[in-house]
Amino acid sequence: MTPEITVLTLSGLLQIVQFAIYSVIARRQVGNRTALGPRDTAIELTGTAGRAQRAMNNHFEGLILFTIAVVVTTHAGSSAFTAACAWAYLIARVFYVPAYLFGWVPWRSLIWMVGLVATALMLLAALV
């Protein structure tokens, strides 16, 4: 398994951890009955629960681009540079969770940018 595939696997596990964090915090806000209900109407989460939901959704969005980067990098050939970029992405995503949950301004945006730039560099490296 290439380092990039390993990091992609760990990123998938991070998504599961974020989903668990979101689920626990959201359930505390809306209660068990609502959390277990059919959700026929939209539930607006606020505060930490809303931030946990948005952080989780943001990781889904970033994970799409990162997955593309890992696929093309793996196909084009893994390198120490692309492996370092993959690890930078994962480390940024790990730090992004508390940055979003606790509202670290401007750190949250800077951490997000590290992950995006790492992904973009992987894509560019696959082209050259």
UniProtKB/TrEMBL annotation:
It comes from the Bacteria. Gene3D superfamilies: Membrane associated eicosanoid/glutathione metabolism-like domain (1.20.120.550). It is found in: Membrane. Pfam families: MAPEG. The chain crosses the membrane at residues 6-25, 63-90, 110-127. Keywords: Membrane, Transmembrane, Transmembrane helix. Signal peptide: none annotated. The keyword Oxidoreductase does not apply. This is MAPEG family protein. It comes from Arenibacterium halophilum.
